[in-house]
């Protein structure tokens, strides 16, 4: 709301205020409600006569409207954390877990699959932690029945997975070749899910673009991706749409654009600062809209399904909720993150704050136009409303404050970036728990704030939470993941509070079902409810304590009472102790087998022995020696 004060003279904003005036001004509400010629005449006269006459008078009217309509806008100054809420979710609420193709399937070059940008990127040196790849990952390609059994044991209502574009169309170009073995794999997965009463929610793009399209056209920098992606989506609707009723076009396009084409941290690893992310996002939004229209015109009548998009967003909370500049910075943070994609899809164009800030900085840099692309009038109309439901991925929160980044002629376009365009700084509270990923702090109340923001900004759309979970970064095997139990308990409870606030959340997806390949972090971080032993070629799965806890939430459809919920936690930890013993025994057997193999094959396995046994042993001894030396120095000083 704070930013609107500075942009209310724009015609689109005037129309917005007139709408609020019609809805919220009590003195005229009854007149409009009568739907009489006199009421119509009043509104027409207001638009055609009073508006052009008196700009000053309008300023006063609009300020009054802001006050009158404040109850309908998001209130940045109100942050009621509240206590834990015991209660249940609405009947029919859907509980699930998720995964993605590249992160779990493995079989990267089997049965006719083509290369993806992640296959190529992960094989480059030093692009991924410890040079890990997703070549085999969880071997999910060969474990469909086993993994569906895990879902059934969890009592999931739905399972979210993605379809690998190059597994179906190896080059990404439909006219080149369709891989029927890839079709067969997803047929089998979908059929097994349905046989076990688990609803498939299918993502069409979870970051694994066919490498040929990257090499030939430049990937999402090129408008031709819109057509190729639409052809791929149409093939999926044709082959799987008789059984799949929930489609997600893109997962977290923010990461695709920013980390793939701005920072280069993710595939394809390009660093096109200040332009690459905006161009990629522009084409992704157009591709999403075209796929939605394709389904709407060709398949919806026959298949009765829905098409949405999954947008990930951290929440941004003002450092000082009484400081207007901090409030504006926090709103900018969320608009540059979530609004970048959601506002065009729900309202037809980019957030005004993005257009203003990027446009102004582009001008200051001496550029002829804004680095943020524009939609034509026809495109705005075509994109607006292309969302049957909104998928929301959320993990953490940041405190936000104002920070001015230089953007004059001296700071050339090479120093401009998506991050400096926002003019803000991100902060964290050192008291927030951070068990795993360096970016992931547990801040449950931010989830409720985000969901209520979506409700106020986009007309309370149907929401499915498509990603929510927490990682751990541990060198020792630990199935008793008490911190994950706490995270799920708190975040799911904040979602329940949001539903009580009136937010239309219809389902929740725990991220993720299995430990898996975590992009540039490789296998160094684990998000799974089930532990996967990646050192074992069979990739066995072991339930963590969070499996039992999440299963109880699903069975009870919420949190019945304090005593019962505390009992769930206790039983979950007890169960994981026996699982820990089982896993430890298996790891001992695996280690012994590796040692025997190294003994019997010393020449070919010399380097494996160095990396698997010698290096860890030397590192451990070095740490112990350093600790002893440090203790000696401290004692000497005392």
TrEMBL record:
Enzyme Commission numbers on file: 3.2.1.21, 3.2.1.45, 3.2.1.46
Family statement: Belongs to the glycosyl hydrolase 1 family. Klotho subfamily.
Gene Ontology biological process terms, A to Z: carbohydrate catabolic process
Keywords (A to Z) from UniProt: Glycosidase, Hydrolase, Membrane, Transmembrane, Transmembrane helix
InterPro entries associated with the record: GH_1_N_CS, Glyco_hydro_1, Glyco_hydro_1_AS
Protein name as it appears in the record: Cytosolic beta-glucosidase
Positions of transmembrane segments: 613-634
């Amino acid at each position: 709301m704070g930013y609107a004060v500075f942009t209310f003279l724009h015609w689109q904003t005037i129309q917005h205020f007139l709408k609020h005036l019609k809805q919220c001004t009590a003195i005229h509400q009854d007149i409009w409600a009568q739907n009489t010629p006199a009421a119509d005449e009043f509104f027409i006269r207001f638009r055609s006569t009073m508006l052009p006459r008196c700009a000053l008078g309008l300023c006063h009217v609009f300020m009054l409207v802001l006050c009158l309509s404040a109850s309908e806008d998001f209130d940045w100054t109100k942050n009621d954390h509240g206590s834990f809420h015991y209660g249940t979710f609405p009947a029919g609420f859907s509980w699930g877990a998720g995964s993605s193709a590249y992160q779990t399937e493995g079989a990267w070059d089997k049965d006719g699959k083509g290369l993806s940008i992640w296959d190529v990127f992960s094989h480059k040196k030093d692009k991924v932690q410890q040079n890990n790849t997703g070549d085999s990952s969880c071997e999910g390609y060969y474990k469909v029945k086993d993994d569906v059994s895990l879902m059934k044991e969890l009592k999931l209502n739905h399972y979210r997975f993605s379809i690998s574009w190059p597994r179906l169309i190896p080059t990404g170009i439909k006219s080149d070749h369709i891989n029927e073995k890839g079709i067969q794999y997803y047929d089998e997965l979908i059929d097994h899910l349905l046989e076990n009463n688990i609803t498939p929610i299918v993502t069409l793009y979870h970051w694994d673009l066919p490498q040929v399209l990257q090499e030939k056209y430049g990937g999402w920098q090129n408008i031709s991706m819109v057509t190729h992606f639409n052809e791929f989506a149409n093939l999926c609707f044709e082959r799987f749409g008789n059984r799949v009723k929930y489609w997600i076009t893109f997962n977290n396009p923010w990461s695709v654009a920013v980390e793939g084409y701005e920072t280069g941290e993710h595939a394809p690893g390009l660093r096109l600062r200040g332009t690459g992310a905006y161009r990629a996002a522009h084409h992704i939004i157009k591709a999403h809209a075209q796929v939605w229209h394709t389904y709407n015109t060709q398949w919806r009548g026959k298949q009765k399904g829905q098409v949405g998009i999954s947008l990930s967003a951290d929440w941004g909370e003002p450092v000082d909720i009484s400081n207007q500049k901090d409030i504006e910075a926090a709103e900018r943070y969320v608009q540059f993150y979530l609004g970048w994609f959601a506002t065009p899809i729900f309202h037809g164009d980019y957030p005004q704050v993005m257009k203003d800030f990027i446009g102004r900085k582009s001008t200051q840099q001496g550029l002829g136009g804004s680095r943020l692309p524009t939609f034509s009038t026809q495109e705005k109309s075509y994109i607006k409303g292309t969302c049957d439901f909104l998928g929301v991925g959320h993990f953490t929160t940041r405190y936000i404050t104002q920070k001015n980044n230089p953007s004059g002629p001296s700071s050339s376009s090479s120093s401009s970036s998506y991050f400096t365009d926002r003019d803000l700084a991100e902060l964290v509270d050192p008291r927030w728990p951070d068990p795993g990923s360096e970016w992931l702090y547990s801040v449950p109340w931010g989830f409720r704030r985000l969901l209520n923001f979506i409700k106020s900004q986009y007309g309370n759309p149907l929401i499915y939470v498509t990603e929510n979970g927490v990682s751990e970064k541990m060198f020792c095997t630990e199935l008793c993941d008490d911190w994950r139990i706490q995270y799920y308990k708190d975040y799911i409870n904040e979602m329940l509070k949001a539903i009580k606030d009136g937010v239309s959340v219809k389902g929740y997806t725990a991220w993720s079902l299995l430990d898996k390949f975590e992009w540039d972090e490789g296998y160094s971080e684990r998000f799974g409810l089930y532990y996967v032993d990646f050192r074992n070629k069979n990739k066995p799965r072991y339930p963590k304590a969070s499996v039992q806890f999440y299963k109880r939430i699903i069975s009870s459809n919420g949190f019945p009472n304090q005593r019962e919920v505390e009992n769930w936690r206790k039983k979950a930890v007890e169960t994981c102790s026996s699982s820990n013993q089982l896993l430890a025994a298996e790891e001992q057997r695996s280690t012994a087998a590796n040692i025997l193999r190294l003994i019997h094959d010393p020449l070919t396995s010399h380097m494996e022995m160095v990396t698997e046994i010698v290096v860890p042993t030397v590192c451990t001894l070095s740490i112990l020696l350093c600790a002893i030396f440090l203790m000696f120095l401290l004692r000497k000083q005392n």
